Amino acid sequence: MIGKKISNLKIQNIKDLQRTIKTRNIKIGIIATPNNITQLVADTLIANDLHYLINFSSFTPKIPDYVIVKNLDPGLEIESMTYYLRQRRLNRIAG
């Protein structure tokens, strides 16, 4: 997949990560990986001076105290929204 374009984004080799972070002045890393490599990706981002991470994986990586991570579970968010949708439908039926 390296080198392929999706919309206007080009898939790059992980070997280019450090250069890309520096040349594009990237400050926030986003983790959207399978659980089994979440820690590896977090470690790689931190090693490349990204200390602000958004994690979409359902695995919470162990990180140093100086790193800020926001864990967001899309599955849990969808479940929450379907709950509210069901409640709204039930209220319409009852009302």
A few lines on this structure:
It is built from three helices and five strands; from the N terminus they run ββαβαββα.
Q: What are its keywords?
A:
about 100 residues, alpha/beta, Rossmann fold, 3-stranded parallel sheet, two-stranded antiparallel sheet, elongated
Explain what you see.
The chain is of the alpha/beta class and 95 residues long. The protein is built from three helices and five strands, in the order E-E-H-E-H-E-E-H. A three-stranded parallel β-sheet has the order 3-4-5, with helices on one face. Strands 1-2 form a two-stranded antiparallel sheet. A hairpin with a 2-residue loop joins strand 1 and strand 2 (9-10). It is elongated, with a radius of gyration of 18 Å. The N and C termini lie far apart (52 Å). The mean pLDDT is 92.
